[in-house]
Amino acid sequence: MNLSAALDVSRKELLELGARNRLIHTPLEGKRKSWVPIVDERTDQIFDILVRNDKSMAFLPSDAPPDSTDEATKEIQIVDRDAKPASETVDFTEVADGDDGVLDQHTDLFLQTSLAADSLGKRLLSTFRDARTAEEEQGVGILYLACGFLQWTEAKSSSTRRFAPLLLLPVELTRNSAGTEFRLRFRDDEIVTNLSIQARLREDFGITLPDLPDDLTEDDDWTPETYFNQIREQISDREDWKIDSNRMLLWFYSFTKFLMFRDLSDAAWPDDRPLSENPLLESLLGDGMSPEVAGPAICGEADVVDSVLNPADVVHIADADSSQAVVIEEIARGRSLVVQGPPGTGKSQTITNAIAAAVHAGRKVLFVAEKMAALQVVEQRLVSAGLGSMMLQLHSHKARKQEVLEDLRQTFEQGQPVSDEQMPQDELRELTQQLRQHGAALHGKIKETGWTPHQALSKSLKSKLAGLSAADRTDDSVVNWSQRDYQRSRQCVLALDQTLAQTGPLQSHSWRGVRCAPLTPADTDRLALSISRLRKRVNQLLAAGKSFSEILEVERPEKLTDFPGFIGLITHLGKLPSTADRSTLTDKRWHSNTQVSESLKAIRVARNGRAEVEENFIDAAWGIDWTPIRIAIAARGRSWFRFLFGDYRRAAATFRGVARNGVPNAIDEQLALIDRMQAAQKLQNDPNRDSDLCGQLFGAAWQQDSSGFPDEATLDRALGIVDWISGCEESELLQQHARRLAAKGASLKTLAPAMDAVKSHFKATDKEWRELVAYLKLELGEALNATSPRDVPLLQLSNHLGSWLENTEQLSHYTNAQKYLSELTSVGLSNFVSSIKQGNETQGRLLDALDYRLADSLWSWSWRNRPELSTFEGSSFEALRKRFAELDELKISHSKLEVARKHHENMPSSAANSGQVSLLRREMNKKRRHMPLRKLLREAGQAVQMIKPVFLMSPLSVSQYLEPGGVEFDLLIIDEASQVQPVDALGAVSRCKQIVVVGDQKQLPPTNFFGRVSGGGEDETDDSTNAGDLESILGLCEAQGVPSRMLSWHYRSQHESLIAVSNKEFYKSRLFVVPSPLASGALGVKFHFTENGCFDRGGSATNAAEARAVAVAVMQHVKNTPDVSLGVAAFSEAQAREIQDQLDLLRRDARQHDEFFTRSDLNRFFIKSLENVQGDERQVIFISIGYGKDKNDKMTMNFGPLNREGGERRLNVLISRASQRCEVFSSIKAEDIDLSRTKSVGVTALKTYLQFAETGDMEIAQSVGDADSIFEEQVAAALTRCGLEVDFQIGVGGFRIDLGIKDPENPGRYLIGVECDGAQYHSARWVRDRDRLRQAILESRGWIIYRIWSTDWFQRPDEQVQKVLEAVDQARIEWESRDSEGSHSSPREEGGSAEVQWERMEIDEPAEDSIAAPYVECRLTIPNFSGGPADLQKQALAQLIERIVEKEAPIHADEIGRRCISILGQGRLVASLKEKIGSALSMLEKGGRVELIEDFACRKGQQDFPVRFRKDLDNSSLRKVDTIFSGEIITAVVSTVECNVGPTKSEASSAAAKLLGISNSKKFQEAVWAAIDKLRLHGKLDVRDDKIFVV
Asked: Are β-strands 391-394 and 950-953 bridged in parallel, bridged antiparallel, or unpaired?
């Protein structure tokens, strides 16, 4: 369905032109009459008295003359009348035209009625109550004095007469107190004709009834009779149609639905803004609202909002919790929303903040609610904040012309808000960050682990308490775990723990050290065979080694590492040279075999040296001392004069004499040969020392020749023996036994059999053992305390292999355990694995040990890496919180000033003298005969919005006062939206760009209020009707996809029992309910049973006895607690009236208490039915059930509206109105309700509530028994040891206090509440919730709160316990003081910081002249120059022009010439000078010094062209239009339109001329109109109905 079709459907819902509409037909001939008939009066005279003379009138019953002593009779003479009471029979005998005389009875201040005194009093009282309720419920006055009736028929053949009122005077009934008379007064509202009969006659008969003139109250010649005569002319051809001009009655009429009907027609809207193209309506009536249209969310429903909202940056004029703050911010960002606000969750507070934020942003707001109470609560909040002046009340009696205009005048004339106080916003922003950092450090997740430091520390504490010991070393790598890693590790540890139950301690397990993967059974069998074979070989090797050791007389080999040494020993013995003298092998000098080797080398060198010398020298050379010869040759041999030296000659001669082959020529060769000779001489001189040693050690193997040197073969044999001896040093075994055994003659041949056996067994054993170690991946150190396979003692190995064979089946358990251990090692738990292997962890508690180790590791990492934890001090942090609270409250207070400033900045200028502002001024200055509000808002709506950016209206008053297209709003807020029908809200929606509906689907749906007060509603005791339960705008918005948010903090109830049933039954315990520190006492729910109560079924439908009980309780309340507000709510209208009647009887004897019932504040006493109580709140509520057993002791299951579908929503509203106490008066108990006889959900809920009221049988403020964390358990345990009784988690809903310390002397009371920074603290979504608001609310409920910080507790628990004990002692003193004063509330006031003090500046009368700055001409002095501009050089002229432009830009080129002449004192503005100036300007423009636009010079890049006032200038040329730049005219036009709001073109021209200080010539007007056209083209201005507005 397209929007046009949807609107047509909606219009049909509104249009009622049938006989059921009392404006079409007032049943004057009917039997049931609920109106007050006025008889024997003249309409013209009544009009003069009530309207023109503004007098009030009293009522005369049919059987009582007026009291001439009444004060009212002193104004107009009253004469006694003997006229008989007029009959109520309809008599349309028309008054003859031309009657000249007017009886005095028609000009007095009494209205004659046809009712007897008693009937008149009851009917006036009923009318008075219903009229007042109508204003409260629907926001419009529906009480009219209907004057003049048209008698008509629907067809010529019809005999049914219809009666339609023609003139409707808005009136009100007033009285001073319950015992005084009622008076009728004209309500300062628009006098209307019957729009519905107009439409019906036009549609059916083509008859157009005349409209009333707009100025009928100003035209003294106009009378109602004049109007009736006009109608007579229109119906003159209609047979049997008559007009009774003086037929009058006081009754309820409503024509606002008809106005709504007209609102929803495209024809009613401007052509450029047709209703059928309204995007918001399209979303609600079309395919739904897309996320793009609605706007983005700033966060998820449960997300922490710290990252998106800083208290320093929001505009809140009242406290707001996180759920409210998110709503406020999203509204401010333009998001359309459904705000679900359960009872007491701060809907009005949220709306107040949203409105203030919108005004601060310069937006226009339409706030709509049907109930006056809903608007008044928000209004009062804004007034209390000092922002009442930005609201315009157009709801109920607030919409009176004179009051509205006076309100506008006062606001328009108020000064600018000023204050010396500063807001340290940056400090607040920084404090917010610091508080967040601690919370983030303690409760922020550690990387990807999913753990927080607080959880880690709590787990550590819990583990310690459970007896677990701290690990020697932490596993720091766990900080890099993911949550999946943690879960996998837990599963692994659990499996390991179960496996260890089978294996026993791993460190003593037979298969310890094995690391292979689990084996199959076949693999296990093969392994057993290999182990058995290896064990056999080990034993054989042990036996062979034993035999071998006995043969060699050496120690028996115990390890495989020993066997290579034995084998090497035998091998070495076999390598002994056969020529060796065995007898010398044991000589101890072989220990210095290095000396022996050196001796052999020396002998070989000497032997070889002698041979070489003998080859070069004769034998005689051996006897020469070669030392002096070498010296002489070395010293003189290289000199040219060497032969001159005798020593050289002698040395050379000697050398030549013994040289066998001659002396070499080179000196170096000579010296080398001498050196070899000297070396040979040295060895020749001492050969015996080395030869003797060798002869002794080598024995027979040492043979020498004649020269005393052994031959080469001897030397080689000797060196071989030395090498063998050196080999004996390679091992300890060789050192100990090789030479000994060789000396004894042992040889390889003799040891060969034993040697072969050892080699064979060793090789096989070594190979198989190594293979087994590799196969099992055996950790030798763990299994056998060895470092290598050969290092294992063979006997131990044999035994270990035997143990394996005996425990083969246990291998699978062990390998499984090792698999789990390996997995744990791979994820970084190597220290944990080591501890398990070492037996330091207890089987059966490995999971606890894992968590302990993980917690300990994570906390250690956090402590090192998060300095906010390691440096935390509770006292310092409390100081931060305290300062934050101070600044946060100061910011709220300062925001009020900011909003007030923005409001004042956006108001029209006080200097405006045309347009809408001028019209408003005229109306505000009038004493009487003001323009109707609808017309005023049509003609001056934009100006009114600038003065009053917030309109407070009902859905009906929107159509009543706002013409389509007249005013528009940026934001629409609908409160109590569950009670507003969609069709009623469409008019408001069509005037707005953004919609926010606030309400609760669990509360009252829309109801047919007008039908009830007019007697046309259904019988309220009938449980079959569902006519009142209609779709609401709230439901429509949800169905169409408007995003939804829920307010979750419940503030109203000062005791949990007041909201317990609603929270549990209707909101699934989703509300955060603030607990009370007290048992119910004076708070909570009370039950009063009326034993003699009887429901008058079929009669009055009341319970008189119960009504009396309620009335008596009301009077008792007034006497005892008059300062406590009270409301009475009944299940039916009849019962409410009965209670009122009973109370009126009691009040007659207690006039001293009248003030309680007549006060006009928001907490005014009320008596209402449950259909009307939504939106009301009182400290105490009395509920009267009313229904019960009848006189026949019969009990039906009919509870009126509760039986309907959705009846539980009515009960929810009813039972959630009280803030302190709710007292239920009932003639039945829960047990009297038989649910088998009804399917009504509402009745079921009633039974639950009655049972709760009687017994208190539902979870309320009590301990749930479990601590939230081990931290709280520790604190509670420590306090319990000190003799205190502690409860955990006090409260219901989501608002719990961690620990409550009971008062032993006052059961049901908590001395203090102890708050910890655990889950409750961390779960707060916003820093304000965490660090101020939560505690402030608790303290406002009477709690005394003490806070313990976990970091302090973990480090200094004893100190913290002592501080708590001190706090308890202080609390006892505080409670004693409260008890003595009779007050249980905290002395701390919410929002207790000092308010920012600000006041408004006094403003003077607006100036008559310009508000623009004066035009300043350039004044310069040019020294040392005599001449005119024409005499200046071009460059000098350009410099002068540049200075003029800098001062006066934009300036006309001719005016530049005039200024040059003025500065230089001579010259004429001739063509040549103009040309020269033009040339200079061109040069300046090319140089980028000025900019030329048309004939004007501007500064380069100049964008702003301010308006300059020219009136006072001597230079008249500056006032010529041609010398004023078009940009300056445009600025003047925009300023004028902004200032005057909606001027006409001529008004804009006149005001702009005045602004510029010039005459409003025709040429200037043309320039202004051109500027307007240009601005319209660029979308800067809009012209509507010949009025100009800034876009």
From this structure: parallel
Nearest one of 998, 895, 889 to 316, comparing CA atoms: 895
Largest CA distance in the chain: 195
CA distances to 238, 408, 953 from 924, in Å:
46, 8, 21
Among candidate residues 1202, 1192, 1189, the one with its CA nearest the CA of residue 1238: 1202
What tokens were used for 1430? 């024409």
Cα 1480 from Cα 1468, distance rounded (Å): 17
Residue 1546 has pLDDT above 50, yes or no: yes
Number of H helices, E strands in the chain: 56, 35
Strand order in the sheet with 1451-1452: 1451-1452, 1496-1499, 1490-1493
Beta bridge partners, 664, equal: none
CA 931 to chain centre: 47
CA quadruple 195, 200, 202, 204: dihedral, nearest 10? 180
Mind giving me the DSSP string for 713-780? HHHHHHHHHHHHHHHTTSSHHHHHHHHHHHHHT--HHHHHHHHHHHHHHHHHHHHHHHHHHHHHT--H
pLDDT of residue 1404: 55
- Average pLDDT over the chain, rounded to whole? 85
pTM beyond 0.90: the answer is no
Asked whether 1467 and 1460 are in contact (CB, 8 A), the reply is: yes
Phi and psi torsions of 174, nearest 5°: -135, 155
Average pLDDT over residues 968-995: 93
**Residue in 142, 147, 196, 140 with CA at minimum distance from that of residue 171:** 142
How high is the pLDDT of residue 1383? Answer: 63
Mean pLDDT of 1464-1483: 91
Tokens linked to 853: 């180790």
93/84 Cα distance (integer angstroms):
17
Helical residues (DSSP H) of 1488-1582, grouped into ranges: 1526-1540, 1545-1556, 1562-1577
- Calculate the alpha carbon distances from 656 to 162, 620, 652, 659, 680 in Å: 175, 12, 6, 5, 19
Q: CA-to-CA distance for 1105 and 1142, rounded, in angstroms?
A: 10
> Which two three-digit tokens encode residue 211?
């409209």
Q: Which amino acid is at 1394?
A: A
What is the mean predicted confidence (pLDDT) over 678-698? 69
Helix (H, G, I), strand (E, B) or coil at 1412: coil
The sheet that has 1286-1290: what strands, in order across it? 1286-1290, 1297-1302, 1310-1316, 1345-1348
Query: Cα(201)–Cα(12) distance, rounded to whole angstroms?
Result: 18
pLDDT at 2 over 90: no
Question: Measured between alpha carbons, how far is residue 1232 from residues 821, 1193, 1205, 1246 in Å?
Answer: 68, 12, 22, 11
List 770's β-bridge partners, or say none: none
Measured distance CA(110)–CA(59) in Å, rounded? 5
pLDDT (0 to 100) of residue 684: 65
For residue range 841-875, list pLDDT tens digits in order.
888 888 888 888 888 889 889 999 999 888 888 89
Is residue 1371 within 8 A of residue 1344, CB to CB? The reply is yes
- Taking the C-alpha atoms of residue 1144 and residue 1146, their distance in angstroms, rounded to an integer, is 5
In angstroms, rounded to a whole number, what is the distance separating the alpha carbons of residues 1444 and 1460?
8
- What pLDDT is attached to residue 1388? 43
Summarised one tens digit per residue, pLDDT across range 1442-1459 is 999 999 999 999 999 999
- H helix or E strand, kind and range, residue 905: helix 874-905
For the chain, percent of residues with pLDDT exceeding 90 = 42
Query: Helix crossing, 117-138 with 372-384: angle to 10°?
Result: 60
* Contact (CB, 8 A) for 625 and 678: no
Could you give the CA distance from residue 513 to residue 531 in angstroms, rounded to a whole number? 16
- Concatenate the DSSP letters of all residues of 1446-1499 into one string: HHH-SEEHHHHHHHHHHHHT-----HHHHHHHHHHHHHHHHTTSEEEETTEEEE
Quickly list DSSP for 1115-1177.
HHHHHH-TTS-EEEEESSHHHHHHHHHHHHHHHTT-GGGHHHHH--STT--EEEETTT-TT--
